[in-house]
Amino acid sequence: MTLSRLRPSPADAVVALGFAAVGCLAGAYYRPPGWHAFDGLGCVLVCLTALPLAFRRRLPVSTVLASAGAYAVYLGCGYQPSVNVWTPVVGLLSLAGCRPLPVAWAGSVPVAAVMALSGLAGRLHPALVAAQAVLIPVVAITFGHTRYLLVQANARLRDVTADLVAGQEARARNAVTLERMAIARELHDVVAHHMSVITIQAGLAETVLTSDVPAARSALRAVAETGRGALDELRRLLTVLRVQSDDDGQEAPYEAAPRLDRLPELVGGATAAGLDIRFTAAGEPVPLPPMVDVCVYRVAQEALTNVIKHAPGARVALTLDYTPDEVVLMVRDDGGPDGRARTGERPETVPGSGLGLIGMRERARICGGHLSAAPHDGGGFEVEVVLPLHASRRARPEESEGQGP
Q1: Cα(212)–Cα(217) distance, rounded to whole angstroms?
Q2: With a threshold of 0.70, does the pTM exceed it?
Q3: Which of 56, 75, 330, 378 lies in the 20 to 30 Å Cα band around 153?
Q4: Where are the alpha helices (DSSP H) in 273-355?
Q5: Which residue range forms the structural domain that includes residue 210?
Q6: Where are the transmembrane segments (predicted)?
C-alpha cells in the first residue's frame, strides 16, 4: 500500500482532531472525585484514542483495534470515562460501513470489551454494563452495514448502467452497419442503371459517328454526363462499404430502390391504415440525384410507419418543398385522435428492420444533408430531412459513427 493511499482524508482528520480536542478539554475541566487527576499522560492517551479515526476509512480494522486498545489503557490508568468513550464506536461504525458483516462482528468484540470496562470503571449496575456492552456495538453495526449495502447496490447499479450503455452503443453501431449495407445494395442498382445508359449511348455514338455527327456528339455528351454521375455514385458506394460487417456471405434478395414516383402509393397505403394525410408539394419539381430520391422516399416511409405505430388515426401534414439548392421533406402529426403529446415516445424502428431513425440519419449524412426528429408543442411528432440537390461533401464513416442518433 502506497503512502498516498495511507494519507487520511481532510474530513476524517478533522473528525479525529475534534474528538481529541473535546476529550482533552473534558478531562481538564471535568474532575469528579475518586479518579486519577487528568495530566499530560491522560492527554496523550486521549489523543491516542481519538487520532486513529483519521484512518477510519483507509484502515478501518486497525482503527478499531488502536482506538479500543488506547481507551482500555486510559481506563486502566484510573482516568475518568469521558467523551472519548465514543471514539471506538465511531471506528466500528466506519468498519461496518466498508467491510462485510463477518468482519464487522469481529471488530465489535474489542469495542464491546471496552464498553463493558468503561461501565465497570464508572461503577454502573451490572445489568446496565451488559446492556451497554451489547447494544452499542449492535446499533453501530446496524447503521454501518446499512451504508455498506447501499454502497454495494450503487456499485452494482454502476456496472449495470455501464453494460447497458455499452450494449446500446453496440446496437447503434450495428444499426449503422446494416443500414449502410442496405444503401450499398440500392447504390448497386443506381450504378448498374448508369452503366447501362453509358453502354447504350456509346453504342449509338459508334453507329452514327460518321453518318450523323450531331447525334454522335449528343450521345457522347450523354456518356460523359452519365459517367460523371456513375463515378459520384461509385464514390458514395465505396464510402458506405468502408465499414466492418459481420456479413455471413449470403446475399439476401432485394427489390429495386423505390423512388419519389411511388410516394402517392405510400400515402395511399398509410391512408388505408387509418391516417388522415394532407400532402403538399411546393416549388418547381426537379430531377433528383438517385440517392437523394431514394433517401426522401425512405424518410417518408419511416415517418409514416412510426405515426401508424405510435399515433394511429392521427392527422398528418406531409410537405415536399423544392428549392434551387435543396429538397426538404417534413412529416408532422398531431399525436392522434385524443391529441395526446407523444413527448415521452421516440419512434425507433420500421417493423422488421431494427434501424429506425439511426438509419435515416445515416442516409441523410451520406447524401450530404441532415435529419431532425422531435416532439413539437401541442402534441405529436415532427420529422424533417434537408438534402442538397448538388454534389456536397461526403460524410466519412468515422464521422458518422462518432455522432449520436
Answers
A1: 9
A2: no
A3: 56
A4: 290-310
A5: 173-241
A6: 12-30, 36-55, 62-82, 102-121, 128-150
